[in-house]
Amino acid sequence: MRPSTGSVLPSHHHPSDQFKDKPRSLIGGMHGSGGGGGNGGSGVGSPSSPSSLVGRITLRRIILFAGSVLFVYIIISTAFGPPMDDTGFPIVRHKERDPYVDIPNPVGPNDPYSGRHGGGGASNNRAPIPPVQDIDRHGQRKQAPVIQLDPVDYEDRPWQAGREGEESERQVPGEGQDGMFSDGGTIMVGDEGDVMLADGLEDGESEVMIAAKERKASHISYAQFLSASRRERNYAIALMVREADLALQSTDVYSVTNKNQTAPSNDIHDYLSLSKYYWPNKSKPNGLPYRRIDGHVNPEIETVRDYRLLRTMIREVHIMGMAYHFTGRREYAEKCAMRLKEWFLDEATYMNPNINYGSLRKGEKLGARTGVLDMFTIFRVFDALHYLQQDEGWPQDLIPRLQEWFTRYVTWLETSTLAQVEREGDNNHGTYFDVQIIGIYLFLGRVKDAREIARAALHRRIDPQVKASGEQPEEMARKTSWYYSVFNLQALMTLARWGDDLGVDMWFYEGPQGQSIKKAVDFLLPYSLSGGDGWPVENLKGFDMTDYLKCLQIAWHIYGDEKYIEAIEVLEPRVQRDMDEGKVKTVSTFMCDMSTLLEASNRGGQGLIWHWCLT
């Protein structure tokens, strides 16, 4: 049955009820269809009545009238509306806002840009801004509207303060412009609305323009750089994986208990190493106590394996940790966990947290202060742990247990007589003491203590150890003077890298007489190029350039001195030839170069990869 066309109100609701609070004349006008009709209609629609005009206007006429007005509005807006761009979207004009003043209020209580959660500032009850609808009715992505910024007087710009009277020009990229700088020294707005400063400023060329000119002057294209970078990265990872696989296959036990003689304490868990420059005293029947012959290594040191095993463990954990990072192979992480437990924690094989018997000279009852140096490369283990702990199978209690061990060990460094004498060393021993203890402090979260060591190193290490000429007198006095000059330079650079993370600038520090790390690099440079010709003091065992080349590469990244890159071009082929001939270990410094380039001299960079180029 066809539904009734009458009122849609419920049957119990009389039509006039909805108007019961209205004047009776309006009610009559709404129910009348002209002048008469309907009960009580006479007189209501009469021309003489004040409501007669209202009575003639029906709901249909109201709708027709509103539609007509809307239609006329659309026609006028289309003909005389705002200008459109080539895509049919309106060109939006607005006043350029000051980013430091016109920052909108937070959207809600958890606005990530508000710097806090809930409360404060503007009202947190604002509705979230709806997402932009960037798809048109044909399902195609809309193009962003062209935005033209109205000019702003330069006296209103905060960055123009103090430049009254200077004439400036501001351009907006238009026909024939692509947002690049013009030749007239202008300020232009790029495609993203960012303000770009052009060249031609009175204060000289901007850093951007200088860097752009250097980039254009290079004979190497960016494509060539990318190709070389990928090639060198692949080579570095291949060498890394090869060494990590060898470490993975090793079944030796790395432990202080793996030796055939004990320290004077008779505790097999005490670390023991022999002083490498001490030999039997021929004037004594039993050869005791041993006497020092600098520059000549006594092969007897290999009869006690603690030093060799400690350094092997550190190197292998580091290389497997890096290999895990670059390959994701979990067997590397598992082997690292095993090695760390084996050396530090397992009941049968652990090491006591001290080096009371390091660099022991036979005939003595206690080790030498120089034995503290044996542990200085431990920071490489901490570097590896940064990546290893991310493995889902990594033992969750391992790092806390290691931190407990190193808390006891660092207490020994801070309080024992041997360690304190080593700390006061005025040569590489003192420098590497700082390297070791800073690494441990950072592993334990003692950042303040690490920073104090780094700050003190400016005056305790650089000032007394480096002359204004760059010569390192304590290292030059050694029989192997070239080796130790480079060795201490590596320690100073490692400290400087720690300083980057701790807010201490050691790279560009100069002492009272102009002492600096850079001058130490410069002093060695001419002798590296001459193969040692003209070296002013005695030197045994030649002039190996492998480690100095590493220092030179880092110095190039830090200082950008052209003579460094020129020297690298000469030295790198020589070192590579020695690697090819098996004279020195084949290594790649690409990872350390890239890490140094991106992180060195930047606070908080961590330097987790580039450490291996120095040690």
Summarize the biggest pleated sheet.
3 strands, mixed
**What Rg, in angstroms, do the CA atoms define?**
40 Å
What distance lies between the first and last C-alpha atoms, to the nearest angstrom? 96 Å
Write down the secondary-structure element order.
HHHEEEEEHHEEHHHHHHHHHHHHH
Structural class: mainly alpha
The number of strands is 7
Kindly report the oligomeric state of this protein.
Answer: single chain
Overall mean confidence score, pLDDT: 78
Strand order in the sheet with the most strands: 3-4-5
How much helix is in the residues?
40-55%
Number of helices: 18
Report the β-strand fraction as a percent range: under 5%
> What is the global morphology?
globular
Name the poorly predicted regions: 1-53, 91-135, 141-189, 192-202
Give a structural overview.
A hairpin with a 5-residue loop joins strand 4 and strand 5. With 615 residues, the chain is an all-alpha fold. The model is unreliable at 1-53, 91-135, 141-189 and 192-202 (pLDDT under 50). The relative contact order is 0.05. The strands form three sheets. It has a three-stranded mixed beta sheet with strand order 3-4-5, with no helix packed on it. It has helices spanning 24-31, 52-56, 59-80, 207-217, 222-249, 306-327, 330-345, 379-388, 398-415, 417-423, 428-443, 447-465, 473-476, 481-502, 517-529, 546-559, 562-580, 590-599; strands at 92-94, 147-149, 170-171, 187-189, 195-197, 278-279, 291-292. The chain contains 18 helices and seven strands. It starts with 23 loop residues before the first helix and ends in a 16-residue tail after the last helix. Residues 1-51, 102-182 are annotated as: Disordered. This is Alginate lyase domain-containing protein. It holds the Pfam family Alginate_lyase.
